[in-house]
Design goal:
The protein is mostly helical. It has helices spanning 5-18, 22-42, 48-61, 70-95, 113-131, 135-146, 151-158, 162-183.
Amino acid sequence: MPQTPADSSFDAVLAAAQAGAPWACRELWEGHAPAVAAFLTARGSREPDDLTSEVFLTVFDRLGAFRGDAAAFRSFVFSVAYRRLVDELRMRSRRGETEQLSVASDPRRASSAEDEATARLGDAAALRLLDGLPADQRDVMVLRIVADLTVEQVAGVLGKRTGAVKALQRRALARLAKNLGETRTPAAGPDDSEQ
């Protein structure tokens, strides 16, 4: 079969690449890498650009032993690409799917002992305050604050009228304010009127 000008051009590029000419390797890369990356992407590679680079590292490593025309070279490149893709898919099936670890989603992450103790003290203090309320006021406050329900929703849950829920909430807040006032320490020293 007679050689066409394209075949002779490919032969010259291949010979130069086999001799180690950087321009020839770049030309082989630029002529085939986009199609290889597209193939790898379409077949499900997670990192098609990285895998394309690995394919060409192998191609350039084996380039000295290659014999053939442009069509045979393309076949050679895609056979390497296919094998690298199979390796990636096999590795993923053995290891399972992976996900990038972030500090926020790390289940092993725990807050400091100080933060946990402070949170518990705060929770305990809030529970003591709520426990100091009559049962109906406590129910209203827990449903309003903890469950984040509206007055109408609380009325529906408790089977009370909206006005009754508002009154219970008002009384509960007044009692909580009074109880909090008794437990707080003054920010400044006593004023002259208390002496």
